[in-house]
TrEMBL record, chain A:
This is Translocase of outer mitochondrial membrane 6 homolog (yeast). InterPro entries: TOMM6. PANTHER family: MITOCHONDRIAL IMPORT RECEPTOR SUBUNIT TOM6 HOMOLOG. One of its GO terms (cellular component) is mitochondrial outer membrane translocase complex. It comes from Lates calcarifer.
From TrEMBL, chain B:
This is Mitochondrial import receptor subunit TOM40B. Belongs to the Tom40 family. Residues 43-54 have a biased composition (Low complexity). GO terms for biological process: protein import into mitochondrial matrix. GO terms for molecular function: protein transmembrane transporter activity. Coiled coil: none annotated. The gene is tomm40l. Keywords: Membrane, Mitochondrion, Mitochondrion outer membrane, Protein transport, Receptor, Transmembrane, Transmembrane beta strand, Transport. Residues 31-41 have a biased composition (Pro residues). It comes from Lates calcarifer (Barramundi). InterPro entries: Porin_dom_sf (IPR023614), Porin_Euk/Tom40 (IPR027246), Tom40 (IPR037930).
Length: 61, 341
């Protein structure tokens, strides 16, 4: 165990705080960041993964 | 990436040979979306002024339609059984009957009528347009839209809950060469001294970029206030990105037309008042050869939904199936509808 005040405990505290922030579903800022990330991911999917032709003929095996 | 296609608005009702709308008209003219202008490539400096004269900035359309293209991709939630019968009585007049059998609320019957005048202002636009419907409890919804001049369009709308008026509003829209301005007066009450005034302004900055704003002033005895928001819309070759920012929150939407069959929409909404945010992803699949349209969506509130619409040609019949699941609340809702005419 590291003594209080050492850099490693500070990093652990920061990681713990970040995990609590990321899992707190009642936090508005956290939800805002998560949903902004989801929006960006949705735009990326729409721009890059929606290019398929449904009416193209089936490949002959 | 696939072929680059210009995003296009939904097809307006086809004009008849007599210059009047055909019987069985389901979408009143004037409700359609203005065409989306594709991006014009930048010109050289020497011919810049000449190009500017030859390619003037297009009208950006109505303020309320900025997010519409994306919203139309998402399925509409429906529950119970719905039967709609549309009947065109003449080139100008159409009636419809709607019976809704609900599993959650009260079942209802609604009678609607649509009148379209003979003043033609565009390929499929006729004015005045009068739309109204009343349900079995006596609640009325009515709208009158008229093109007063080439550039000014006005609308008056009423809504009652049984015998009590709950909403009455009038608005006037002015469409300039490269801008649109709208003033709306909502629920004015001179006796009490209350009402709402909404002003919209949308300006084309470039052929692809439009910027605008909305100002809402509301007043009632002892209280008054204003809310302002700004909007920006960028139109690409096959996509439209729109952002609305205001003190009440933010709304961002991205519409992408992948090809003739597939359209995708992503929406982000944040409300500072409700302290809530949400993201929705939706898509629309059109298979004209099968007379089929499928819409699906999923959002950050763990709600998954889909609607399937199929035209049963050669019968004038259209079938709609709808299902929505809320995984977070363990709720399921489904709907079935038939439209005749």
């Amino acid at each position: 165990l590291s003594a209080a005040g050492t850099p490693s405990s500070g990093v652990m505290d920061w990681i713990g705080s970040a995990c609590r922030f990321a899992s707190d579903r009642n936090d508005f800022r956290r939800n805002l960041l998560v949903n902004l990330g989801l929006f960006a991911a949705g735009v990326w999917v729409a721009r890059n993964l929606s290019d398929f032709d449904l009416m193209s003929p089936q490949p002959v095996t | 990436m696939g072929s680059v296609l210009a995003a296009s608005s939904p097809n307006p009702p086809p004009p008849t040979s007599g210059g009047a709308p055909a019987p069985g008209l389901t979408v009143p003219p004037g409700f359609g979306m203005p065409p989306v202008s594709p991006v014009i490539p930048p010109a050289g400096a020497a011919s810049g002024q000449q190009q500017e004269a030859e390619n003037p900035l297009p009208n950006p359309g109505a303020f309320d339609e900025c997010h519409r293209k994306c919203k139309e991709v998402f399925p509409m939630q429906m529950e119970g059984v719905r039967l709609v019968v549309n009947k065109g009585l003449s080139n100008h007049f159409q009636v419809n009957h709607t019976v809704l059998l609900s599993t959650m609320g009260d079942s209802s019957y609604r009678f609607g009528a649509t009148y379209v005048g003979s003043k033609q202002t565009g390929p499929a636009e006729f004015f005045p347009v009068m739309v109204g419907d009343m349900d079995n409890t006596g609640s009325l919804n009515a709208q009158i839209i008229h093109q007063i001049t080439n550039r000014i369009r006005s609308k008056v709308a009423f809504q009652t809950q049984q015998q009590k008026f709950v909403n009455w509003q009038g608005d006037a829209e002015f469409r300039g060469e490269d801008f649109t301005a709208t003033v709306t007066l909502g629920n004015p009450d001179v006796l009490v001294g209350s009402g709402i005034v909404v002003t919209h302004y949308l300006q084309s900055i470039t052929p692809a970029l439009a910027l605008g704003g909305e100002l809402v002033y509301h007043r009632r005895p002892g209280e008054e206030g204003t809310v302002m928001s700004l909007v920006g819309r960028y139109t690409g070759s096959n996509y439209i990105a729109t952002l609305t920012l205001g003190s009440a929150g933010a709304h961002a939407s991205y519409y992408h037309k992948a090809n003739d069959q597939l359209q995708v929409g992503v929406e982000f909404e944040a409300s500072t008042r409700m302290q809530d945010t949400s993201v929705s992803f939706g898509y629309q699949l059109d298979v004209p050869k099968a007379n089929l349209q499928f819409k699906g969506s999923i959002d950050s509130n763990w709600i998954v939904g889909a609607t399937l619409e199929k035209k049963l040609l050669p019968l004038p019949l259209s079938l709609v199936l709808c299902a929505f699941l809320n995984h977070h609340k363990n709720k399921f809702q489904c709907g079935f509808g038939v439209t005749i005419g």
